[in-house]
Amino acid sequence: MNINYSLSGLGGIAKTHLMGLKNLAMLELGLDFKINLSTLATSHPQEKGELAREIGFDRVVDDFDKLLKADVDLVDLCTPNFLHAEETLKALAADKHIYCEKPLALNLEEAETIMEQLEGKDFKNQIAFVYRFAPAVAYAHALLKNKIIGEVQFAKIEYYHSRYLNPEVPISWRLKKDSSGGGALVDLGSHMIDLSRFLLGEVESLSAWTKTFVNSRKTAAGKSKKVDVDDWAMLMLDFASGARGTLEASRVSPGNEGFRFHIFGDQGAIYIDSDQEDKVQLFDQTPEEIRVTEEMVAGDQFLDRLLELYPGSKSTQGMMIDLHLVSLIFFFESIAKGKANPGVPTFEDGYETQKIIEAAYQSAEADAKNIEIK
């Protein structure tokens, strides 16, 4: 099957997608589809057009509506957050399959509109919560499903970056509420919210705190502008299972960047560290780490397919490209097969994440009031 691929935007994350796709054939995965780089839509066609043609796109257009009129099967949305809902709704109306970078929308209202328009349609959709596709996460998913550590009692989740600790970093769309939807909680926390749901189940209620430490930044013209998004967020989560957890996201935390997931059950513990994306650590009731056996993770279709696709040590392009590539392969397979592989993050997952983000901001504005997730 030939799949005509189109892309909206050619910024940093789009290039991450393309670096994986350009090398897909060399992995020799025996896939039953081929990807044709059909059309790129960019608001900077003169600046980006030559690069796009060198990458291999058949055509470059300067408007998203023109992209939708081309002979394409899917759209890959790599534009800034404030365009996600608009482009998604247009793509749905044009009967295209959609792969969207996170978040699904700027706010819950936009996300609800998307879900309403999606109802009754049979177009494949996926959101780029790519950390699900880290082998360590998939192993943890299988271990938890098979109750290897018993019933989960609590979890500690953290994701740290440090870029915005530097007050000289200028203002950008990521630091404006009306164009990003939020700060660290949206940018980093959305990934961890998705993993918490994937691994631990639904969140019933939460309390949250947020803080902006660098309150103003310079524009390109040198003028000072107020920052109205969070640098740091902390959530206290109550899960439907009875488990509890803390989730922390920060863009001002140097020294230990990346994400970590500690899950504690009544018969052991699981530890995930993004510095070792292919290895999950498992502990029983002793202090010593124990080996994960095939029997412990048996029967998990998501893990089985992921391990078939994930690049090995001699073909890796680095964690981020590998994660995005495997996520895209799962999406392409859903189109080729007519149904999604188990475990993929769909727009429904994006919507549920948006509900938790919205509740967290409501809680933070109300002095950490407990908010139910409805």
UniProtKB/TrEMBL annotation:
One of its GO terms (molecular function) is oxidoreductase activity. Residues 4-122 form the Gfo/Idh/MocA-like oxidoreductase N-terminal domain. Residues 138-270 form the GFO/IDH/MocA-like oxidoreductase domain. The keyword Oxidoreductase applies. SUPFAM superfamilies: Glyceraldehyde-3-phosphate dehydrogenase-like, C-terminal domain (SSF55347), NAD(P)-binding Rossmann-fold domains (SSF51735). It comes from the Bacteria. Keywords: Oxidoreductase. PANTHER family: BCDNA.GH03377. This is Putative dehydrogenase. It comes from Halanaerobium saccharolyticum.
